[in-house]
Structure formats: C-alpha cells, structure tokens
Amino acid sequence: MQRREKDIFPRLVSPPVFLGAWLLFGLLLLTGLVAWWAEIPTFIDGSGIVLTPAQTHRFSNASTLILIFLPRAYAAKIHAGLPVRVQIDDGGTELLSRIEHIEPGIISPADARQRYALDSEEERAIDQPSVALLVQPRQKLDAGIYAGSMVEARVQIGSRRVLSLFPGLDRFMKG
Questions:
Q1: What is the pTM of this model?
Q2: CB burial readout 15-27, b (16+ within 10 A) else e
C-alpha cells in the first residue's frame, strides 16, 4: 500500500513561468542597483553675452570672453573649473568650456550695465542680482562676428543619484 502512495504536489506554476518570474526579479534587482549608483548631472541655467574686444581690455591674455550671469542663489556652488555649455543665439553654435574667473560678490543689473558697458540689447542678459563669471571658449571664436551676441549657458554644478529623483526616496539619498 505504501508503494502506491505518492506525495502529489499541486502544480501552481509551470516551469517556464517560474523561470520567467526569477528572471524578472533579477532584472528588477539589477535596475534597482543601477538606480542606486548611477548619477546624472545637475545644471543651472544662465544668460550672458560675448564680450567685445573693448569690454575685455581689463582682462589679461583674453582674446574672446563670454560673460555669464547666474542667479545669486547658486553662488556657493559655483567655482572656477566647472564645465559650461554655451549656446550662442537661439539654435546657433554650441561651445564647451570651463569657468575661468568668477567676479567677486553679487552684482546688480545696474552695476553690471555700468561695469561691463552693456548696451540696451546686451542688458537683457541680466534682470536680477546675479553672480558674474567669465568663460573662455575652447574653440576659436571670431570676436568680430560674435561680439555682443546673446548666449544661453548651462553650468554643471554637480550630480545626483537617479534614485533621488523618485518622490519620497530623496530624503534617504542625502548622504
């Protein structure tokens, strides 16, 4: 009688489904690990102008300089050497560079107009108290053609983990 008795287990899941569930769990775990360690850059946006040779006379060894104004709230996060992407005019030339010099203190729009001799077109670059920084493009830029052109700049001030972008998880990612 005991030979005929067999333990019969119910087949709740077929072997291919079981294997697929483990593969899905492994992919979910791998995605979680990537989200934990992967980092994305954080940027701040600013505007500015390509300075004319007359405006750059007070800076030594400067051929073409770009003056960028960033909101004063980010003053503590900005330092020389940070990477900058500069786009001249809307949809125009994009340049890569680094911050060469940061003007001391916070500058008001009126002070900026006076200090850098900005004309009415160029003064649109600053509309609030800002931090002024100078960028020298890596690529050659003809100052005669681009001088006075408006620019949009993105300064990379750091990076953050992908997981910190999810609501509620950002507080665990402070460290």
A1: 0.72
A2: eeeeeeeeeeeee
pLDDT in tens, 14-38: 888 889 999 999 999 998 888 888 8
State the CB neighbour count (10 A cutoff) for residue 100.
16
Q: What are phi and psi of 99, to 5 degrees?
A: -70, 125
Amino acid code (one letter) for 64:
T
Q: Residue 125 and residue 69: Cα distance in Å, rounded? A: 7
Closest Cα to residue 38, out of 158, 171, 162, 157? 162
Q: Which CATH number fits domain 41-158: 2.40.30.170, 2.40.30.70, 1.10.10.10, 3.30.310.50?
A: 2.40.30.170
Q: What is the pLDDT of residues 123-156, one digit of tens each?
A: 777 888 899 999 988 887 776 778 888 889 999 9
Can you give the residue ranges of every domain in the chain? 8-38, 41-158
